[in-house]
Amino acid sequence: MELAISQLIKIVLGVLVVVVVVLGLYFFGEQLIDFFRNLPGAS
Q1: For the chain, is the Cβ count within 10 Å smaller at the N or the C terminus?
Q2: SS (H, E, C) the chain
Q3: How far apart are CA 40 and CA 27, in angstroms?
Q4: Torsion sign, CA atoms 32, 33, 34, 38
Q5: What's the maximum distance between 2 C-alpha atoms anywhere in the chain?
Q6: Chain centre to alpha carbon of residue 33
Q7: CA dihedral of residues 31, 33, 38, 40 (deg, nearest 10)
């Protein structure tokens, strides 16, 4: 039972990490695009 609970915790943590990374890349990616778009030398 203890092994199953630890595996469940690892799965939940893994899913949370993936969600946080995807959301972070989504929001940070938009900021990066705006940053490069506002550069003085950008075409």
Answers
A1: C
A2: CHHHHHHHHHHHHHHHHHHHHHHHHHHHHHHHHHHHHCCCCCC
A3: 23
A4: positive
A5: 60
A6: 16
A7: 130
* Integer Cα distance of 43 and 31 in angstroms: 18
Contact 20, 12 (CB under 8 A): no
> What one-letter code names the amino acid at 42?
A
The model's pLDDT over 1-36, given as tens digits with 9 standing for 90+, comes to 677 999 999 999 999 999 999 998 888 888 888 887
Q: At residue 18, what is the residue type?
A: V
What's the predicted TM-score (pTM) here? 0.54
The pair of three-digit structure tokens given for residue 43, joined into one six-digit string = 């075409």
